[in-house]
Prior knowledge:
Blueprint: H1 5-16, E1 21-24, E2 29-34, H2 38-48, E3 57-59, H3 63-66, H4 75-84, E4 89-94, H5 101-104, E5 109-113, H6 118-127, E6 131-132, H7 147-154, E7 160-161, E8 174-179, E9 182-187, H8 193-200, E10 204-205, E11 227-230, H9 232-244, E12 249-253, E13 264-268, H10 273-288, E14 294-298, H11 307-316
Parallel strand pairs: 1-7, 3-5, 4-8, 9-10, 11-14, 12-13, 12-14
Antiparallel strand pairs: 1-2, 2-6, 3-6, 4-5, 8-9
Helix pairs in contact: 1-6
Amino acid sequence: MLPDPARIEEAVALLNAGGLVAFPTETVYGLGADARNPAAVARIFAAKGRPVSHPLIVHISGIAAAQEWIADLPDSARRLADAFWPGPLTIVLPKAVGVPAAITGGQSTVALRAPAHPVARALLAAFGGGIAAPSANRYGRISPTCAADVHEELGDRVALVLDGGPCEVGLESTIVACLGGRVTLLRPGAVSRSQLEDVVGPIADADASSPRVPGRDRSHYAPRTALAIINAAELLPQIDRALAAGERLAVIARSSAPVISDQLVWRQLDKQPAGYGRTLYAALRELDRAGAARILVEDVPDDEPWAAIADRLRRAAAQGADGAVTDAT
């Protein structure tokens, strides 16, 4: 969906006034504010119910725009940006003097991304500055992949929602840190480890010394309905037992429903990871409204193309028994 110039102009006016604007990216919808305005950034945290210690991603137009936000641009970061920007890759770098602590979670680093969605790029070009934008949902819940999701999540907490249609990727960006002479994978996403290594060589895994980044809580991306990941061989026996006990179930799988029952809501997703990831959050939202006692998700393959999906499902399944989100950064 192409940008509407009048809506872009309205969004820029709201950002300049310190307001919140939700906008589409190729990954998920973001909740944006002027990254240089601490009061506006504080409104993001209040709208989401997000802990202020959690850093935000600053959305920018590209490498040239990154210069004002960073103290150093390592060669590895430049090569990654050349290869994957605009696109679903966030790069964590040493922050420049004067970068507001509100967007870094008090850390010495800043996370930057150049989104590819035409609406996001039009907004950034018209605004002319960095836009701090986490996903446009309540903290810990399922990220929005269409404008209706944002309205459902945030209501009047956001002044304007730019509708750019459904998100093409549907899962949050890959996050890497380029610090201390090495590149570290902090969150899996559409850009895979192999793709990164093709550009910069071996990638390190995150450890206790790595920067905090979004989406690393033990429980995140979670529906309110309890969710469990089930081995494919155990899925049908579990369903049979639940139905026999009168339990209403919702299921996400890569195959069609083996039984038909009024107690069973079944969503078959794509057998390929790109298609599966694109529709996963929409399916979780739908099943969260289905009145089921539980959501069962057939486990996905344990290989690199499915890594980001497996990560999101593990975090969605880690909620407390009462559906409460636990904070374990």
